[in-house]
Amino acid sequence: MKIIIVGAGTVGLSLAQHFSQRKHHIAVIEQNKRLCEDITNKLDAFMVTGIGSSPAALESAGIRSADMIIAVTPNDETNLLACSFAMQNGVKKRIARVKSDLYTSNKSHISLEQLGVTHVIEPEREVTKKILQYIELPGVLETANFQSDSIYLRGYQLTDAMPIAYKTLAEIKHMAKTSPMLVVAITRQGQNLPPTGNQKLLPADKIIVIMPKDSFKTFRSLINCKTTKLKKIIVSGDSLTAIHLAQALKPLCEQVFLTDPDLEHGRMAASMLNGVEVLHGDSTDSDFLQEINVKGSDCFIAAGKDTEDNIMSCLLAKNEGANNVISIRDNDRHSELFHSLGIDHIINLQQITLNAIIEKIQIVSLGTYLKLKTTGIKVVRLKAEKNSSVTGKSLRELDKVFKKSIIIGCIIRKNSVIIPEGAITIEDNDEAIVLCQSQDIDLAHKLFSSGLRNHFKSITQYNPKKSL
Fold it and tell me: Which of 203, 306, 405, 451 is the most buried (most CB within 10 A)?
């Protein structure tokens, strides 16, 4: 495919790297000349120095023959205009990153589709959705939704009080009855165990489960997690994300507070929010955190524009006694250190935006969705191409080859979600959520790719060094 990326910031660069590795033809438009020079030395991509909404820059990037355009500059207007020009030049997929509610709220009465956008990415709303996943299931270790939130991945640590403790996976399947779910990873004392039917779960085990959305209620009952309203949540920040969060948290919590260091932004937030108390103050100040009684909060969420301040305010809130703290950041640097210092969850804004764009695109071999921090396992989404090594094979046959080093967590077939069982056969164009170690990702891609059917025979003696 020929893909034009408008904007070479963190997200744009990550996209360029992602598609370049998969041998697509990439053109990148960026107005920062120095950034263009740096990328030219790093990537096999055609660079155009210019503004993404410029017809001349788009022409130089090859807009007339492009299959897709992804506009991810910090400027909404530039992104929308780039997609509009792309529509006029016959580009089929046109993706725009949009931050402002001015274009996406119901009150705007604007059709972005008519402007030329086929897919809208709203980073702030994607982050809000991610944080709500942590709030709605207290104690969750890992969380991700796929396929427009129809597939759930959740990680949890077991306790004695959970009905599934001391039960085998086969017994748990029987307990779930008509609610399909699959335990795809088990970690015990730092070691990954094979998730076979006779494997018994013990207290302190960490498990990863994949399920359709409709099975989530049953999963909650199996881990003894009742649906109850939280007492108090504090959201801190001077951003649109903070406002979205405060609004979305109201049904889940009795009291929601928004603290804003920017007085004018705080007034605007107060005018937009009903039932949320908006306070003016700096959450990097311990005295202010004591003043708002952060010690009594179920959760403190730092969602300000300055992501380093978010980290600092979370560390302080945790020190002052907040039960759980969640920070939004724009990178992964020192994440393990911050986790060790007490931050429960760090939400990577750029990674979430990247994942949202990749899912919207839905092309073959979408690549890594996420790395599970509790196991080191990576989650990828792959499409079974015609004549690939996996097509026509039952999961029982594949399992003998994969030896639990590669696990198919679920299958997406014509928008239906299938939780795997041994007799199910992979068909052409099935998409699969696959879990594997880093060293097995290339193999997984090869098995799902066309033209490599004989490769299946060559790995029948495959003996991975480290199983899941």
Answer: 405
